[in-house]
């Protein structure tokens, strides 16, 4: 047992033995678990299905064809196809149970563990309700309340910390809520075009609908992320972020079913506390969102740029000087409304890409000039492309390569502009130290300050407003490596990498959706000064802690035990 795996299955394995009072199977302090006497019979599930008009789905693990198990026989052809496509988001996002983060799938039914490898339901939800309406959600909540069953809310399964999965749970599955409507919105704080989208709408669907109307809306760099789920509720950075702010800054209204089963509208004018909490306080804990209405902005000519070089033939000192120069150039770039993604390790660097809504190619080249002259001076060969597109949609579709999943474990830190302005060498030193120890970087260069976000009212971690470098650090995932090595990587993130990043950003924070799940200070780091108020609002709309997600507001009410069983923490038991 190593490290400080505070919230992981592994530490809890040892806790389990310290807390024998939790060992009884139908403990009233725990959620009812499959196999317990309290678990509903097949007849009860079937009756529930009937009340839902047949929308109940029983989980069959996605990778079942890769194993001989109670779900069927190994099928070489199907298994090969699954293995080849396992790191593509589209393999998972139509499933009612699969998740993209392999650590949290816990090898329950992993396509790479061989025919004899286990295929069980494990950390996946047991059933899902493919909700089509508020009444479906209310029925699911009533059923789980009556039967003391754990709830998970599931949209696409993108969450890096597996927050849309849960052992022994019923998933409320929002994927089929695909309506999109464009309207003219008029309220005290915003007058203009708006898009109302169902909670199942994904980036690519919203982008296409907006494009048809000469508009743009904010979404992730990965176009398959759902917009109204974990993304916008957790903050949401976008290629349009330096021009309009975070995704949560765009929200005008949420349509939500709370834990009491009430169908509510939350805006600045109505249920404004719930509106405030949902806009930035994180997914999966305040209620089940059915739809979200956001600002839609007029489309505009958009430039895209990329630039890359490797460390071949240059010293590491020179390589890191170049990265330092990129960071020096960033404030002027992001203040022009450009968002710039970079990826680097010890051997290569790429701006991949930068997006300039309303910025000409000429201006983008000018802004890159300080960096390229430094590269020339250092004798670094690079490739560069800057191109102007007639609209955002074409820029996005041309400049972004598909993003893989299941290839890494994640942690992150919001590094403020002041760190780069006052002590850039310390920033470089910290990144270099991590890279030399096997970490790879993915950094979002952005300006989502209050002046960019405008007139907003939400629970975005204030650290975002001063951020220049939304720093994501990763360790590689290897499906065939010993599990202990993946655990060691997770611990390295917590014990080494994140403390190094905190040293260069004292008092800043962490982006909820790109965070180390073992952060012992997650309340402060993820939510900042907003945590206490977020918890009060949670208790108002969800008094029984019906909703739980790892590291979500209020999550320490529960403890997830090694087998996944969710039990009240000792102080609440
Ligand atoms: C490949 C990839 C690229 C990414 N790119 C970006 C990016 O560019 N910018 C960015 O900011 N983030 C990005 N992310 C992170 C992303 O924002 C999070 O993974 C986010 O949690 C995904 O939300 P989801 O609803 O699609 O996923 P899920 O995994 O389905 O859900 C995530 C969380 O939201 C909750 N939730 C989902 N739907 C609802 C609902 N209707 N009501 C209440 N709670 C709900 C779930 O319970 C869970 O806690 C990326 C992630 C991946 C894997
Ligand atoms: C629910 O009913 C539908 C339609 O009858 C059926 O297709 C589905 O398999 C049922 N779900 C479960 C879990 O039995
Ligand atoms: C909370 O639990 C109590 C006691 O079991 C129950 O009476 C009440 O209906 C529950 N409320 C909600 C909102 O789940
Ligand atoms: C961010 O951009 C806005 C708009 O261009 C600008 O007013 C602000 O000074 C910029 N920088 C910071 C740190 O806020
Ligand atoms: C830059 O973008 C172009 C156009 O999409 C692409 O062909 C090229 O591979 C990109 N280069 C890098 C280094 O990402
Ligand atoms: C920069 O940061 C380093 C490491 O934290 C520190 O030792 C040094 O004093 C700092 N320099 C300045 C000018 O703040
Ligand atoms: C993954 O782990 C296996 C087993 O330890 C090893 O043979 C393989 O080389 C690793 N793959 C990579 C890409 O590191
Ligand atoms: C994860 O897998 C391990 C065995 O590899 C098992 O002991 C543990 O109970 C599983 N955890 C959950 C939450 O299913």
From TrEMBL:
Pfam families: BBE, FAD_binding_4. One of its GO terms (molecular function) is oxidoreductase activity. Residues 120-299 form the FAD-binding PCMH-type domain. InterPro entries: BBE, FAD-bd_PCMH, FAD-bd_PCMH-like_sf, FAD-bd_PCMH_sub2, FAD-linked_Oxidoreductases_BP, Oxid_FAD_bind_N. Residues 1-25 form the signal peptide. Keywords: Oxidoreductase, Signal. Belongs to the oxygen-dependent FAD-linked oxidoreductase family. This is FAD-binding PCMH-type domain-containing protein.
């Amino acid at each position: 047992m190593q490290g400080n795996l505070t919230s992981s299955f592994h530490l809890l394995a040892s806790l389990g033995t310290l807390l024998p009072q939790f060992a009884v199977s139908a403990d009233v302090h725990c959620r009812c678990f499959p196999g317990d006497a309290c678990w509903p019979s097949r007849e009860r599930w079937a009756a529930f299905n009937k009340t839902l008009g047949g929308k109940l789905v029983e989980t069959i693990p996605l990778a079942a064809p890769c194993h001989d198990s109670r779900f069927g026989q190994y099928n070489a052809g199907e298994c090969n196809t699954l293995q080849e496509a396992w790191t593509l988001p589209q393999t998972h996002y139509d499933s009612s149970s699969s998740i993209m983060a392999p650590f949290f799938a816990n090898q329950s039914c992993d396509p790479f563990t061989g025919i004899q490898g286990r295929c069980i339901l494990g950390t996946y939800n047991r059933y899902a309700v493919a909700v089509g309406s508020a009444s479906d959600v209310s029925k699911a909540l009533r059923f789980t309340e009556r039967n003391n069953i754990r709830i998970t809310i599931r949209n696409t399964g993108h969450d890096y910390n597996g927050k849309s999965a849960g052992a022994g749970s019923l998933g409320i599955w929002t994927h089929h809520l695909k309506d999109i409507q464009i309207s003219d919105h008029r309220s005290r704080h915003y007058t203009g075009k708006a898009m109302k989208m169902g909670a199942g709408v994904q980036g690519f669907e919203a982008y296409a609908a907006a494009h048809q109307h000469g508009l743009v809306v904010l979404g992730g760099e990965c176009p398959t992320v759902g917009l109204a789920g974990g993304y916008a509720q957790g903050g949401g950075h976008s290629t349009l972020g330096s021009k309009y702010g975070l995704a949560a800054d765009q929200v005008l209204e949420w349509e939500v079913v709370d834990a009491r089963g009430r169908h509510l509208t939350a805006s600045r004018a109505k249920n404004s506390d719930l509106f405030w909490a949902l806009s930035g306080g994180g997914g999966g804990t305040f209620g089940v969102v059915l739809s979200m209405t956001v600002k839609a902005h007029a489309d505009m000519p958009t430039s895209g740029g990329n630039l890359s070089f490797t460390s071949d033939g240059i010293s590491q000192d020179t390589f890191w000087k170049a990265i330092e120069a990129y960071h020096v150039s960033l404030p002027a770039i992001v203040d022009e409304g450009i968002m710039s993604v970079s990826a680097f390790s010890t051997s290569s660097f790429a701006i991949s890409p930068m997006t300039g809504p309303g910025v000409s190619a000429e201006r983008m080249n000018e802004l890159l000039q300080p960096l390229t002259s430094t590269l020339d001076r250092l004798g670094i060969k690079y490739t560069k492309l800057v191109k102007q597109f007639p609209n955002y949609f074409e820029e996005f579709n041309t400049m972004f390569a598909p993003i893989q999943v299941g290839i890494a474990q994640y942690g992150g830190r919001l590094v403020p502009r002041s760190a780069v302005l006052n002590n850039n060498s310390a920033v470089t030193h910290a990144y270099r130290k991590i890279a030399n120890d096997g970490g790879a970087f993915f950094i979002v260069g952005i300006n989502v300050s209050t002046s960019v976000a405008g007139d907003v009212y939400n629970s975005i971690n204030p650290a975002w407003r001063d951020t220049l470098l939304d720093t994501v650090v990763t360790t590689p995932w290897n499906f065939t490596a010993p599990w202990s090595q993946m655990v060691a990587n997770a611990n390295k993130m917590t014990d080494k990498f994140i403390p190094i990043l905190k040293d260069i950003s004292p008092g800043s924070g962490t982006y909820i959706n790109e965070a180390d799940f073992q952060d012992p200070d997650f309340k402060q780091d993820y939510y900042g000064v907003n945590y206490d108020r977020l918890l009060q609002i949670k208790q108002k709309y969800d008094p029984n802690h019906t909703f739980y997600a790892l590291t979500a507001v209020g999550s320490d009410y529960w403890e997830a035990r090694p087998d996944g069983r969710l039990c009240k923490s000792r102080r609440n038991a």
